[in-house]
Design a protein that fits this description.
With 393 residues, the protein is α/β, with parallel strands linked by helices. Helices cover 42% and strands 16% of the residues. It has 13 helices and twelve strands. The chain has helices at residues 19-25, 36-52, 65-76, 90-101, 119-128, 152-162, 212-221, 230-234, 249-265, 267-288, 318-328, 355-372, 380-391; strands at residues 8-10, 57-62, 82-87, 105-110, 134-140, 167-171, 190-194, 205-210, 295-296, 308-312, 331-335, 344-348. A hairpin with an 8-residue loop joins β11 and β12 (344-348). The chain is globular and about 60 Å long. The two termini are 40 Å apart. The relative contact order is 0.16.
């Protein structure tokens, strides 16, 4: 076991927490009924909306991403409503399972293998729903399991081309603050997110962002849940109702620091950094896989996520490689989920990461593969460096 140096967490969330955020959270408990905490909390809303690209409403929950899923469903879906899940990996399917548990009738449209959602197929499926029985469409922008990026704007175009009125609901848990998202411009009705990935804060706060059509649905049908109900959280007469009880005090301090860091870097610079680092990872994977089994899971380069890369190793034991990285080299890689964990691993390159951190991760992977005697082409780190040099031109 490596005993010196700082262990690096290269999983796709929870991500590395900046020291500045940790320091902000390391504060004594404060008054939750009056004083600076209230002003700080209300100050988070416009900043989070800017990251989401919306002027609509927003609700915060003491919850992880699954809680944010349930919050969104509870306000716009009633038992018996039909929902269309646009599958491109594990997580949209999981959201659909939750909808079914809440009484919805769930239909699934599968993406092509190792690819993103096909907007043409979405349009055809919605045109077939001539009675407009489908009330909501669920999709992820980035699936953390497969590493795919879905074209949310193009899917909106498919929905419009079909003339379908279903609510368009998007999961950005894996990528908010890592890649562009324009909720209002792209016609998204509901977006769900959480704080533990691109927002660089420990797990514990989930978000719903709601457009006018979604809020109209909530007013029309009501919400059976007192905890998940949007209205007290968007129209509170007292601060206490923003969180349906006690506020997540330390998370508010941490999130404030994270958003300040993001504002200082600038969103365009953040997106460019994530794109640059993702390209470096993909360059290394392509080099390792020359005449060997290693390759990116997603075949279409344009559909590969800038937040996480899922890598297939085929007959190379990915679990053994991960153990060497973690136990001997001080790097924790993402486990393959929703796929064969023995032949899949993931590298998270989201949030508080830079070039040395990514190059160190790639170096650890290459060293572990070498120690195993695995069949791969050495020089992936050099390929990543070349990619970064080209990105800097």
């Amino acid at each position: 076991m490596t005993q010196t140096g700082r262990h690096f967490l290269a999983i796709p969330g929870p991500t590395v927490i900046p020291d500045r955020v940790l320091q902000a959270m390391n504060t004594p408990m404060v008054n939750i009924y009056e004083g600076p905490l209230i002003e700080m909390t209300h100050g988070l809303f416009p900043d989070l909306k800017r990251v989401a690209g919306t002027a609509g409403d927003m609700a915060m929950y003491i919850a992880n991403g699954h809680g944010a899923w349930e919050g969104a469903l509870a306000n716009v879906i009633s038992p018996g409503d039909e929902v269309l899940v646009l599958e491109s990996g594990r997580f949209a399917v999981g959201w659909g399972v939750m909808a079914a548990q809440m009484g919805a009738v769930v239909h699934t449209l599968d993406a092509p293998p190792r690819a993103g959602v096909d907007p043409v197929a979405v349009e055809a499926r919605l045109r077939a729903d001539t009675d407009h029985a489908i009330k909501a469409i669920l999709v992820v922008q980035v699936d953390t399991a497969t590493g795919v990026w879905n074209d949310i704007e193009a899917i909106r175009g498919a929905i419009d081309a079909a003339g379908h009125p279903a609510l368009y609901m998007v999961d950005c848990i894996a990528c908010l603050g890592c890649v562009p998202f324009k909720m209002d411009a792209w016609g998204v009705d509901v977006m769900v997110a959480a704080c533990q990935k691109g927002l660089m804060t420990p797990p514990g706060v989930g978000f719903n962002f709601m457009g006018a059509r979604a809020m109209a649905r909530r007013h029309e049908q009501g919400c059976a849940s007192g905890y998940w109900d949007w209205l007290p959280r968007t129209e509170p007469d007292i601060y206490y109702k923003l969180f349906c009880g006690t506020a997540p005090v330390q998370h508010i301090f941490g999130l404030r620091a994270a958003l300040d860091m993001m504002a200082e870097e600038g969103m365009e610079a953040i997106f460019a950094r994530h794109s640059r680092l993702a390209s470096a990872v993909r360059a290394a994977v392509a080099h390792w896989g020359q005449d060997g089994p290693i390759e990116c899971n997603i075949l279409d380069e344009a559909a590969r996520s800038d937040a996480v890369t899922t890598i297939l190793t085929r007959d190379i034991d990915a679990q053994a490689m991960r153990r060497i990285c973690e136990d001997e080299l001080g790097v924790t890689l993402g486990l393959g989920i929703g796929m064969d964990a023995n032949s899949t691993f993931r590298i998270g390159h989201m949030g508080h990461v830079n070039e040395p951190m990514i190059l160190g991760t790639l170096g650890a992977v290459e060293l572990a593969l070498s120690r195993m005697g695995a069949p791969f082409q050495r020089g992936g780190v050099e390929a990543a460096v070349s990619s970064l040099e080209n990105e800097g031109d």
